[in-house]
Amino acid sequence: MLDDLDRALIHALHVDGRAPFSRIAEVLGVSAQTVARRYRRLRAEAGLRVVGLADPHRAGRTQWLVRLTATARSAQDVAEALVRRPDTSWVKLTSGGTEITAVIHAPAEDTSPGPLLLRDVPRTGGITAVSAHCLLHTYLGGPTNWRRSAQALDEQQQTALAYPEPVEGVRQPGPQDAELLAALERDGRAGQGELARATGWSATTVARRLAELRAAGALFFDVEVDAGLFGVRTRALLWLSVRPADQEKVAQALAGHDELAFVAATTGRTNLVAQALCRDPADLHRYLTRRLGSLREIDALETSPVLRTLKAASPAMAPPRGRGGRRAG
């Protein structure tokens, strides 16, 4: 399990994923060497990873949440094929290992992920059902972190670390930013020298463009870490049907639940999806029957247990890690 300094460091990275170790150390009251050493250990043992991600709406992308049902023999192969694709994130094995869910990132003009989905997926008769749900609006997730992984710092410490709030009217991502964004998807804390080599720009140009994208809210930094270290042993995707007139009210209520790490509005037979992170099955049952049960506007609920998360927030694959940390979510 994590100690207080580990939790404080993870929370600090949630506040600003690129904050220098020296600034984090000053806020936490330890040395920069201690912060750097803890960061390296958490990367090796807890799967800690900071990734830089383009805001999909500002970058002109559409996100599709795809559910595939497959036979037990083919599910793992299909999931691994989705993991290898550069346009996917959050690839999960769910529902006893016979269902795969994944987010597919597509250009905004694509009205269906069908051609994208079929490319690179193994040609097999093992896929028995496919459904695609366009993510219309994210209420929790993306730049907003899971609260239970960010409860270590007080308001004064968070203010000292906070990056300035985004402003409107700043240039948005374009084709010229592709190499920069790809490098940040691999490692959101990559140094300016490394980013300069990846882009062919000068370090000064890298610094200026990073500042522009962050100021526009077009680039944010997510933190991937094993949720099990926060006591999570049971994960589930929740597919909810809510009357359209009540959807906003219910979604905002769900976004305030500490048990949830993700809430979004979607197309399809269900119109809200959420991810629950709970201590154990009994904890999930209490959440479903008491907190969700109190929301009378919910007409129907489907619960899909998450067995494994094979790929997390970044479309780019993480480099090999040391001693077997698991991904969060």
Walk me through what this model shows.
This protein is an alpha+beta fold. It contains 11 helices and 10 strands. The protein has helices at 4-15, 21-28, 32-46, 75-84, 114-118, 155-161, 178-186, 192-199, 203-215, 247-255, 281-292, and strands at 49-54, 61-70, 88-94, 99-107, 127-140, 219-224, 234-242, 260-266, 272-278, 298-311. A hairpin with a 5-residue loop joins strand 8 (260-266) and strand 9. Helix 2 crosses helix 3, helix 7 packs across helix 8 and helix 8 crosses helix 9 (203-215). The longest helix has 15 residues, at 32-46.
List descriptors.
single chain; 329 residues; alpha+beta; eight-stranded antiparallel beta barrel; 11 helices; 33% helix; disordered C terminus
- DSSP strand (E) fraction? 25-35%
Biggest β-sheet description: 8 strands, antiparallel, barrel
Radius of gyration: 20 Å
Looking at the chains present, what oligomeric state does this protein adopt? single chain
Order of helices and strands: HHHEEHEEHEHHHHEEHEEHE
**Helices and strands: which structural class?**
alpha+beta
Record the strand order, biggest sheet: 2-4-3-10-7-9-8-5
Helix percent band:
25-40%
> In terms of per-residue confidence, which ranges show pLDDT below 50 for 5 or more consecutive residues?
320-327
Distance between the termini: 17 Å
The outline comes out as globular
Arithmetic mean pLDDT: 89
Number of helical stretches of at least 4 residues = 11
Number of E-type strands: 10
